[in-house]
Design goal:
The structure is a homodimer. In chain A, helix 3 packs across helix 9. In chain A, about 35% of the residues lie in helices and about 20% in strands. The first copy, chain A, has about 325 residues and is of the alpha/beta class. At the A-B interface, helix 7 of A face helix 7 of B.
């Protein structure tokens, strides 16, 4: 029988849990609310329950699984399995691995969620067959992770926080306390925010009619208005794509990836966003980087985090794992 | 006896060649003009001659050396030892390793010069005892290289070309054909260029008196005028340091290094440049990156390229080398 492991993607809103084969096939999957306000122990308990449920419903006993891989937002010390700080959850210096190992009696590996997402896309999604895979996720914010020669890059543990790269010409306040951070524009939240601002500024746009209040506008509303040729939505999407392209130009000149994968909720804008992003990126990078470089949407968008976490757990915890 | 290897730093102006022990000690060193206009074969011949000279003058025979490490500018395929493209030399798809192995009967490893410089600083200079070392060299241009968990990062082979990251608010033409590239400001050449422009614009500065023509001004002239409180030189240094700090803020948010080493000719400006660079960088990065992060000058500035190339050769070519 093929090896399998549990992959868990702990988000601010939902916890996604899946049972994944070593080939990256999803054998079982479920999603439940995180309810982070109930505290860390509650969140850990939900994960443990989901693992039991996976075993019952799949018919594969827990001892038949290699272990559990956890992807969660924030700064993670993957060697100790401690969540040092998490922006969307209340975790702070919390021993995730220790608690979950104790609750489930299974080995656990913990990593940053964006890294696990990109690891999933690299191993079993759009990045297969590439050695240097750069991935970005556009959600509440935007972050990057990459695989270098088949190895996950971590820096000192908090690499890839591109959402808080500042642009002098941007003036929006960021949740981090900074001004002009990339993610005030390039993120699902940034798209919604720009739509809100356009409506508040009285710009003539169908965005003004879509919701009861401009606060309720979403990234999807911008895509919908774009598809109906709304000029304000088109301008927002082009501006957002242009800044995504600028950020990509920096990342390419620094990291020299073979392929760039754009995922996360904000990436559901698809070519509306990727077309201006590609144009800007290719205009700004040196020609020597052009050959063979592609910018593609994620192939396993909603599942990549779960798949990546599970495959990572197999690599870290499986028979013959080096523990690196 | 301890192992040793030849390290060679091939620059546009000079070729530096050294015999280096496995502890990073420089046993012998020499510098000769590159005379690149005489062609690639000439340059290879000069390197081969220097290797013979090193053997004769040090008393260590060639067969007592592990091999030769070459650091040279441009895009290098380190697996084949081919120089794909080199901006300051005429090399283009030239088999450096093959030619030198044939000329010297010694094993040869070839890498990009900035990577070898940073490898030297990481192994035997300011980066010792750190796992994630980022280094920048400021010369004709500016480029970066880094060690991630003790391993040299290469991307697809042309990572670290930060000199050609563009800034919207900069308008200077770059040698690459782009507009507003970082290295039009942040480099030894950029410092000299800003001094020239200030004089041409009629700004009141002692820079106007230092040379017969503004074209002859150098980065060192800017440092000298700075030390004599020349306000134009101070403004140039602050502006350059500020852009260096901006670039560092991007690199920190992306790569999360433990230490940043600034080297190359332009780094001889020292604290005149590093003080505004640090201030800007720490203002722009997120607080979570602050702890333990330092920005320091290179410790073995003029020798780091030679030392790094030699230590790299020992790692790649020595007994027990994995070839990785």
């Amino acid at each position: 029988m093929t090896a399998c492991a549990i992959g868990v993607d702990i988000g601010g809103t939902n916890i996604q849990c899946g049972l994944v084969s070593e080939e990256g096939a999803l054998l079982w999957m479920n999603s439940v609310p995180t309810e982070a306000y109930k505290g860390n122990e509650h969140v850990m308990g939900v994960v443990a329950e989901q693992v039991d449920l996976a075993a019952r419903q799949s018919g594969i006993p827990k001892h038949g699984m290699t272990g559990i891989g956890i992807g969660m937002p924030g700064a993670i010390d993957s060697e100790t399995g401690v969540c040092i700080q998490s922006s969307n959850l209340a975790f702070r210096n919390y021993p995730v691995r220790e608690r979950l190992q104790s609750m489930t009696s299974m080995p656990v590996a913990v990593e940053n969620d964006v890294r696990m997402y990109v690891y999933g896309e690299a191993a079993a999604g759009a990045g297969q067959s590439h050695r240097n895979v750069l991935g970005l996720t556009l959600g509440t914010g935007v972050a990057a992770a990459w695989i270098h020669n088949g190895e996950l890059y971590r820096g000192g543990g908090i690499s890839g926080e591109i959402g808080h790269i500042r642009f002098e010409e941007l003036h929006e306040s960021c949740t981090c306390g900074g001004i002009g951070c990339l993610e005030t524009i390039v993120s699902a939240t940034g798209l919604a925010l720009q739509a809100k601002q356009a409506v508040m500024n009285g710009e003539r746009s169908m965005l003004a009619e879509l919701r009861g209040s401009p606060d309720q506008l979403t990234a999807k509303d911008v895509s919908d208005a774009y598809d109906r040729q709304d000029p304000v939505a088109i301008a927002i999407m082009n501006r957002t794509g242009t800044y995504l392209g600028k950020a990509l130009s920096y990342l390419v000149q620094i990291l020299d990836p073979d392929i760039i994968i754009i995922g996360g909720g904000g990436a559901k804008a698809g070519e509306r966003l990727l077309t201006p992003a590609r144009e800007t990126m290719f205009r700004l990078i040196q020609p020597i980087y052009h050959e063979g470089l592609s910018v593609v949407p994620a192939a396993r968008n909603d599942e990549a985090g779960v798949i990546g976490s599970a495959l990572w757990a197999m690599r870290k915890l499986g028979a013959g794992a080096s523990g690196k």
